[in-house]
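Run log, item B.
One chain of 528 residues. Sequence copied directly from the ordering sheet:
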Amino acid sequence: MDKGITTNLKRDRLVKMTNALVDFKSFLALPLVWFASLEVSLEGEPKKGFFRQTHWRFNRKAKCLTVVALTAVLLISVFAFLPKQNLTKANVGTQNTYHSTATQSPTSSLKSTSTSPPFSKGVTTTGAASSAEKITHAPGLIETAQTINSTVWMEVAANAWTYFQPSEGVYSFTGLPLAGTSFPGFTDWDLGCYIQAIIDAQELNLTTTNGVWGSSNRINMVLTFLENRPLDNDTGYPFQFYNATSGDVYNITQETGVDIADTGRLFVALNNLISFNSSLKQPIDNLVYNKYGNRSNYATLVPAIVADSQTSTNIYSYYVYSGFADFFASSFPGLSNVSNKILTNILSAPVTYSPYGDVSLNEAHITGDPLLLSIFELNNNDPRLLALSKQVYLASEDYYNATGQYCAFSEGTGPDGTFVDEWVVLPSGDTWKITEAGGGPYLNIEPIIYNKVAFSFLALYNTTYARNMLIYLEQNLPEPSYGYTDGATNGCVEGISTNGNGEILSNLGSDTNQLILDAAVYAIQNNP
């Protein structure tokens, strides 16, 4: 675990025709796929491949971005998870339509998959808006709200849930999610995002239990996929990328080895799903514990996780290892203490101070997404975690007070389409640094103000700073007709990108909208 590896993330007639052809092809193939998935195999299938220790990697969640031009060019950037210090919740459907596949084997053949973007709505899908493109709309929800209350948060949640509608961020014929609307692929991290989004939407009554697109059927389609997806023959673990249009492996170069970050994020969501609908415990357990011997043997990963937790000061480790502990702590006693150990490591690290104020920060890998996801999604939050989050928020506000620049550091799309990590602090003691995902030299780019972090700050602290930051984003980003877009940098003028001094990131993706749903649930439950 000494290094990361690369992983991962509309409007004309031509695109619509292409979408229709892709949908029709998927529609014809789907009955065969579902039939195969429901057919009981009398022979079963032994576990594919084996776990190779030398290929065990702690990857970042995979992200892919595409640029769609007249020539239909697809550009994919794949990025890595940063592993160790040196690098870096209301029931989801009481109607159980889940079909057991107790003796099924994975699908035996891989189909070729299309790289054509299946959807094409609303906004620029990759990179920044043109400097000549002005975004104009009426004052936004946060700007016009007299007070930020549960009514406002319900509207925010409804906007975010729009992303997960069929033919937007979920493929209509398979019920599988897309990492972003311009890319038909997804990872286990994205799948975990989708499961958690369904839970959040059910919690807020944004979706019904029954019906084709009710929560029960959505979950049923996801679990059926998990039971039957093809696995890597060499490792016995999932591929990094699957194609939402078919459920097959996505036809790009895949890294070998298991992605611990994506797996742990999926486990967090599956554990929360059991908490909502206990009738799903058995099928989920069957998958996670590989009861029938034809899925992945995740238990073999646990000893290395326990060992890594002894020294890790990475907030990603805190979050994703908690997912493993949800399922394997009873079998591996040492696993029950990993999150406590990592948090203790973080808070025991030397202290540095943000150059923009007197807020102390421990020298560790700290950034927005895993910290906020830990607060919103994990059970029985350690008060120390909440205190750590407050320090990050206060340091962000100090950043603004000193520079006049809004600050909401996390991970996501950068101004040029590159996937980046914004680090509040690093083990070196450096603060407010940006790298490409997976590490490398610091990037000299304008920090991105991520919408998901701004909404999370508002949910947690409801401050003037958080509200003003969201008003700035509302004024410069497209309206959330199909969900919230990623964010912007400072320096935009009335919704116009200003030649590098201000960039509008109009990407639509699952990470942004799922975390905003999390924030809405938290705000409504804790600050009605």
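Observations after the first pass:
- The first strand starts at residue 6 and ends at 7.
- The mean pLDDT is 78.
Flagged for discussion on Thursday.
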